[in-house]
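Posting this for the archive.
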Amino acid sequence: MNMLKKIVILLLLLIPIANAEIQISKNIYTTYNYGDKLSYDVSITENENLQGFLSSTLICERYSTDYYTIPLSLKQGRQDFSIPDLTLTETMSGNCRINVNVQDLERDMIEQKSLPEFSVKNDLTIDAFLNRQTFKPGETVILSGDVKNSRGDLLDSIPVLVTIDNSEGKTANINEKKFTLSFDLDKGIKSFEHKITLEVRDNGNIGEKTINFYITPIPIKLQNSYEKTEFLPGEKVEIETLLYDQADDKIDNNAIIKVYNPKNKLLTEGARKIIFNLEPDAMPGTYKVKTKDEKLNIESSFKVKELEKIDSEIQGKVLVLKNTGNVPYKDNIRVLLNGDTGFSKSVNIKPNEAKTINLAREILKSGDYFIKLITKQDTRSLGESTLTYEKSFGEKITGPITGSVVSVRDSYGYAPFYLVLIATIMAVILIAYQKNKKTTFLKNETDRKEGERYKQIVMARRENPQAHKRKFDIDDNEVSDFRRRILKDIKSTENNPVKSNQYSSREDYGYRAVKPNENKKNLFGMFD
């Protein structure tokens, strides 16, 4: 028995065993895209003749198939086989491997060879460049680049879709493995950052790329913004400068704002935005606002309305009226005392000026008075005040004359008013005196000339009485008596000359001047 076993074993060792060596003649890439073709050649070395099958099996993460099988009739030695290309599809996405199998006729495995593992993807890579990164509105943009597959190989003859800020796309065709696209920016394009999106689609493969460029804003319009355009004195004014670019969008600015009152006097200034309060007596009218940026300047305006307003209060015996508006306050006010008596006053008060009325000079007797003020604005209660009767200025001068002279005055009292009154009276008296003096001088001058002429006539008659003998219906005694009196008067004048500006007999001038009656005084007798 033992001998039989040894014989069987020896016979088995002498039987030749089938064995095939498989070799792959092409490199397998580690990465493929959809639509790529996978190809390789197989070499089989056999040490004896063999009948069977040669097959290739694809095994992926979600897909497997025997995609190629051929019958084999192998002879001892090496034989080469060309395996048809395998087109990779989306179903093969992921990691895959290929097994090359040599089987006998009963499909028992004789030899198997596994190819290196590879992956199937749909990724494409886009490289894109701009001629520069910053542009002005209306300038030309030049875009260039290329597209690579998942292995980094440059692709050709496929379209690239270019979209700017989600607008309608433009197509750039890859030619000689490069693409170029140029386009003009809109003159009203928005400022600051923009994006360009590039997209490639080929056999289910996708590539996307986004690049950014920057638009420099161009200031186009400068504008002053107001909460309102009409204000009352004392209100807050807020002015903000708005700068708009080529797309009519607001952009930052440092414009200088200057505000001028209606008399063109600088009121205030600031940059970009100013806030100020109008004075209580702010001048009514149109206020100019001049705004200037680096390249733009504008002029706008707002109005300050007229405000006619007075404040009133009782200070002891005095009613104080203060103009808190911005125009003269003109009114015929009425003051009620205890509701049943009162008086009226016409007032004209300048802005920011105070006037007073002495109530003690408006009452007939001392006492406590509840005071109301009626103006064209309103009726207001001023409270209660104890007033002591005072004589008016007119009463102090005229004595028994009844009534009172009350005027609206400011806080300086009556003194300026009476000084002006006295000065006016003195000026009138001085003008009248000067006029009378001039009239008297002219009259004296006329009289002097007439007397001189008369004297010459008389002297001529004395020297030549016969040549100038007049015939009158009088006798010789009367003529002699007239001559005697005339000569007497002339002699008296020569011995006693009359001083200038004195009234006396002026016989040296040939006439008698009569001195006025000293007891009779005219309006200006006090100056004689």
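The chain has four helices and 33 strands. Residues 421 and 445 are 37 Å apart (CA to CA).
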